[in-house]
Design goal:
The protein is mainly α. It has a domain of about 70 residues. It is built from six helices and two strands. The radius of gyration is 24 Å and the shape is extended. InterPro entries: SPS. Keywords: Glycosyltransferase, Transferase.
Length: about 150
């Protein structure tokens, strides 16, 4: 609702205080938190009671230098950027030329078995597809993704 809900309406609708409490407890119990960007650490996690990016860096430096931290602990934040490296993908049931091995008794079809289950959902299933996983939030910019994909001739 882009800031149009009151704090009570947000809490009633989304149980946000319960979520924040669960996230605080998880953060307190975590040794490491993996994020997708440095911005997420600096602009999101720093609002939680269980994490302070400046203190986290100081504690890590002290621990590396074998200086006592007086029992203070904070989870380490590690950034692993989203995406996939396709050179690691190995084709199964095929040879190096990409030829799919077939049983002599089965009909020759270049489509994977799942296609028979999903083809009826598309008006033209042979068109290129894109998979975007994100919540429908304006900052995720799904509209621009769909527009750019739709305007791309290939």
């Amino acid at each position: 609702k882009q800031g149009r809900l009151s704090r009570d309406e947000i809490n009633t609708t989304y149980k946000i205080m319960r979520r924040i409490e669960a996230e605080e407890l998880s953060l307190d119990a975590s040794e490491i938190v993996i994020t997708s960007t440095r911005q997420e650490i600096e602009e999101q996690w720093r609002f939680y009671d269980g994490f302070d990016p400046v203190l986290e860096r100081k504690l890590r430096a002290r621990i590396k230098s074998n200086v006592s931290c007086h029992g203070r602990f904070m989870p380490r934040m590690v950034v692993i950027p989203p995406g996939i490296e396709f050179h690691h993908i190995v084709r199964h049931n095929g040879d190096v030329d990409g030829e799919v091995e077939r049983d002599e008794g089965s009909p020759a079809s270049p489509d994977p078995p799942i296609w028979s289950e999903i083809m009826h959902f598309f008006s033209n299933p042979r068109k290129p597809m894109i998979l975007a996983l994100a919540r429908p939030d304006p900052k995720k910019n799904i509209t621009t993704l769909v527009k750019a994909f739709g305007e791309c001739r290939p």
